[in-house]
Amino acid sequence: MIPQNVHKYMKYIGKKGGEARAGKLSMAARSSQARRAVLSRWLCKRFGTDRFETMGIPGWEIVDSGLRDLVNGNLSSVNALAIAEARPRLRFLGVPVPDVSSQISDSRTLLYHNMEKEHGDMAYTRFCSLLERVNSFCDALSSNMPIPQYSSHRNRRWYA
User: Fold this and answer.
1) Structural domain includes residue 157
2) Considering its fold, how many domains does the chain have in total?
3) Which of 22, 31, 92, 150 has the fewest CB neighbours in a 10 Å radius?
4) Least confident of 37-41, 73-77, 79-83, 90-94
């Protein structure tokens, strides 16, 4: 066991090092780092882990990378656009999806156009399967969550 005075000193030194490191970062880098930390803390508190990979839910790779892209400001990735499209349902389930509606007017159309550039004639099939995979993730996540006693939300079928 570490003595209390040593513990205080180590905490003080660590805090000073963090402040010095943060002082060297640009404002955008500091903001991005803070958003990643908030996302990680919220996921840990809500789901017991900072990544959905450890939960083993189908579609975790889309959601994890999409959340990471949205938090970092990469709004052009396919996964980020898929998560932006499923934002209302994911938010309802407790996933902290950032609001990007001011930066993306129609995420569904933008997602399809990005997939059309990448996949050509196969875009529609891949577009539908990507959204279905995110929907499957939401279904699996809702089945892992306890049903609340009182819900003021009018669309309770998301709990089923």
Assistant:
1) no
2) 1
3) 150
4) 37-41
Query: Which two tokens mark 83?
Result: 């998560």
Q: Does any domain span residue 155?
A: no
156: in domain:
no
Segments forming the whole domain that contains residue 114: 4-144
In the chain, the amino acid numbered 44 is C
Question: What are the tokens at 145?
Answer: 């969550």
Q: Give the C-alpha separation, 41 to 35, whole Å.
A: 10
Contact 69, 84 (CB under 8 A): no
Q: What is the pTM of this model?
A: 0.73
Dump pLDDT digits (tens) for 58-87.
999 999 999 999 988 888 899 999 999 999
Q: Is residue 68 part of a domain?
A: yes
Copy the structure tokens of residue 10.
């180590």
